[in-house]
Write a structure and sequence with these properties.
This protein is mainly beta. It is built from 6 helices and 51 strands. One of its GO terms (cellular component) is plasma membrane.
Length: about 700
């Protein structure tokens, strides 16, 4: 489906290139019937096909240089289209170059001005010739017409291309010959070769043949880094033996001197004074510049001298502290040597002025350790305790070794995170709690409190009772403790007479992981209330009867009749008893000791005294309010104990004359007498 033909450029019209039918295997007589046609993107139809034979011939001569210009490969693409059936074939024509172009120069002649003072070996660039042909048909070499002062040398550029140079091989003398006419010939490599010539006219100029000369080939100067603008660095001087403009010298920096140095320094064109022009922003201590002295001749000659300026460093840069990494917060249980931060310390000054020492305050549990060059590591040097210090303000001080030294400081804030390293702590070792008996259920009794310096969950405390028993009962049946605040509440009413004191332990536990705890002993004291009346122990009565004491009829004054014995289950003042005589059948006969309860006679007994006496004794405690009990004592005046004790319901005095029974009897007797009298009167009346 594709065929390639090669054809030399400028091939004459009608020249056969090949047989397309044969080359593509197509029956030539069918080309017309199949409506063949050639398609190309070229503006000209360079080829024809014979419809009957299939012969491919040149229709138009091809100029390779016009068609492809400077391309190394020149190709023409055609497409052959056939119908019935539709077929497409590609044809490619490679146009071969022939040596049909001679080398030519851009200008008709070239002029070169050469000063007479130039020494042999001076070089001058000559123009290149152009040949539109390619390969060996292009320019291959140059020749120069013979001359005793000049010869031709070929030079190679960096890309491999060659160019001719005119080399002075013998010194010129304008007075002997002012103009030299040379012919430069360029030849290609075709067969036969073609060439092109161009005249080269060399004019010898009569110029100053003495270049300015410096007094010194090397000038040295020393200035401070912070020298202000306008400071004189050095004054250079060059002389030129020529006269007039050829001897006038102008100074400038050579083009080889870097642009930044030319901005830092300036040179006076006439005096040669080199001064500071701006800020000496350099990082190297020695600056090298080339100063050029050029005369004012038509073709000025120049010479150069080297200027070496030594910059004396001034400590004008402070250290720069850069924090490259920082770990904050850090746990308070971090081990000594833990790296907290990495920082770099730089100083732009060279030498001693750029050497830096770095330190932090001594009273901190941190230290700086040198790491890589100009790097430091901030590490822990001691144990940390967040409860004592929760954050550190670390001031890093960097000082260079300049004179005077410059100091830079940078502050780091390092926060300490909490670790559960503190158990709860109670304010006291023990707590004493006093509670009155008969308290209501759920009554608030006391609040224990513990503190934990840790933070968050590590410092949140929960309270609970430790398992214990009191009098056979579980502690939890008596008391309850608030989990949140340690408040102790009663779950029962306490009775001093049954339980006077006990102790238990409250545990405080934080919510850290692992949890820490502490316990405290609480001594619980139940205080008494006056809730018990005195109990009469003696004398006692049985079945509701009155206790009876026998007193001799002839007892003397202050005779001990009996002693009232009582007890109170309460305590202290509630159990302090006093005895009082509430009632006595004869107030002149008996007296009662208020503290001992002894019942004694006030006087000696008389024969006229009643045989039976009754006294009522009140026993009262000192509570608030006080409680009391009473006892009734019957006293029988007898020398011996009777077999049967009398009834002490009355007071022992003679019964009153007009008591209820006597009045009843009197009324009854009066009624009977009246009836009898009426009956007698009735009989009397009847009888009469």
């Amino acid at each position: 489906g594709q065929v390639l033909y090669s054809i030399a450029e400028e091939t004459e019209r009608g020249t056969s290139v090949g047989n397309i039918a044969k080359d593509l295997g197509i029956d030539a007589p069918t080309l017309s019937a199949r409506k063949f046609r050639m398609i190309t993107s070229s503006s000209k139809q360079y080829f024809n096909i014979n419809a009957s034979t299939g012969t491919l011939t040149v229709n138009e001569p091809i100029d390779r240089e016009q068609l492809c210009e400077l391309k190394s490969a020149c190709l023409l693409n055609y497409e052959l289209v056939l119908e019935n059936p539709l077929e497409l074939y590609r044809m490619e024509f490679k146009v071969l170059d022939i040596n049909d172009n001679s080398p030519s120069f851009p200008l008709s002649e070239y002029h070169i001005n050469v000063p007479e003072f130039l020494s042999p070996g001076a070089r001058f660039t000559l123009p290149n010739a152009r040949d539109l042909d390619e390969g060996t048909n292009s320019v291959q070499n140059y020749t120069l017409s013979p001359d005793e002062h000049f010869h031709l040398e070929m030079q190679t550029r960096g890309d491999g291309s060659k160019y001719p140079e005119l080399v002075l091989k013998k010194a010129l003398d304008r007075e002997q010959q002012a103009t030299h006419r040379l012919v430069l010939t360029a030849k290609d490599g075709g067969d036969p070769p073609k060439s092109g010539d161009v005249p080269v006219i060399v004019t010898v100029l009569d110029t100053n043949d003495n270049a300015p000369e410096f007094e010194h080939s090397v000038y040295r100067a020393n200035i401070l880094e912070n020298s202000p603008s306008g400071t004189l660095v050095v004054e250079v001087h060059a002389t030129d033996l020529d006269e007039g403009p050829n001897g006038e010298v102008r100074y400038s920096f050579s083009n080889t001197t870097s642009a930044d140095l030319q901005q830092m320094f300036s040179i006076h064109p006439h005096t040669g004074e080199v001064t500071v022009n701006g800020i000496l922003a350099v990082q190297r201590p020695l600056l090298e510049m080339l100063i050029e002295a050029r005369d004012n001749g038509a073709f000025g000659m120049s010479s150069t001298a080297k200027l070496l300026v030594e910059i004396t460093d001034v400590n004008n840069h402070g250290p720069e502290i850069t924090i490259t990494s920082l770990s904050s917060p850090i746990p308070e249980d971090a081990a000594p040597g833990t790296v907290i931060a990495l920082l770099s310390v730089m100083d732009k000054d060279p030498g001693e002025n750029g050497k830096v020492t770095c330190q932090i305050p001594d009273n901190l549990p941190f230290q700086l350790k040198p790491s890589l060059e100009s790097y430091y590591s901030l590490v822990t040097s001691g144990l940390l305790d967040r409860e004592l210090i929760s954050e550190y303000n670390i001031t890093i001080t960097a000082t260079d070794l300049g004179s005077p030294p410059i100091t830079t400081q940078k502050t780091l804030w390092v926060h300490i995170s909490d670790v559960n390293d503190n158990p709860p702590v109670f304010n006291n070792d023990t707590f004493d709690v006093f509670v009155e008996e008969n308290n209501p259920l759920g009554a608030f009794l006391y609040q224990v409190s513990a503190s934990d310096p840790d933070m968050g969950e590590n410092g949140r405390i929960s309270y609970m009772l430790r398992n214990s028993t009191v009098a056979g009962s579980a502690m939890t049946s008596l008391l309850s403790v608030s989990l949140a605040n340690g408040s102790i509440y009663a779950k029962c009413a306490f009775d001093f007479e049954q339980l006077r004191n006990f102790h238990f332990q409250v545990e405080a536990k934080d919510n850290g992981s692992p949890a820490l705890s502490a316990a405290i002993t609480v001594n619980f004291y139940i205080s008494d209330q006056n809730d018990n009346a005195p109990a009469i122990l003696y004398p006692t009565s049985q079945n509701g009867s009155i206790a009876v004491e026998v007193l001799p009829r002839l007892a003397d004054e202050n005779y001990l009749v009996t002693k009232i014995v009582a007890d109170d289950e309460d305590n202290a003042e509630n159990a302090w008893l006093s005895y009082h005589l509430a009632h006595s059948s004869d107030s002149t006969l008996f007296r009662l000791a208020p503290h001992s309860g002894e019942l004694r006679t006030k006087r000696s007994m008389r024969s006229t005294d009643f045989l039976k006496h009754k006294v009522v004794v009140v026993v009262r405690d000192h509570g608030d309010p006080p409680l009391s009990s009473t006892v009734t004592v019957g006293i029988l005046l007898a020398d011996t104990l009777p077999q049967a004790l009398p009834d002490f319901d009355d007071s022992g005095k003679p019964p009153p004359l007009l008591n209820a029974t006597n009045i009843y009897l009197i009324v009854s007797l009066a009624c009977v007498s009246c009836i009898f009298a009426v009956f007698l009167l009735f009989l009397a009346i009847v009888r009469l």
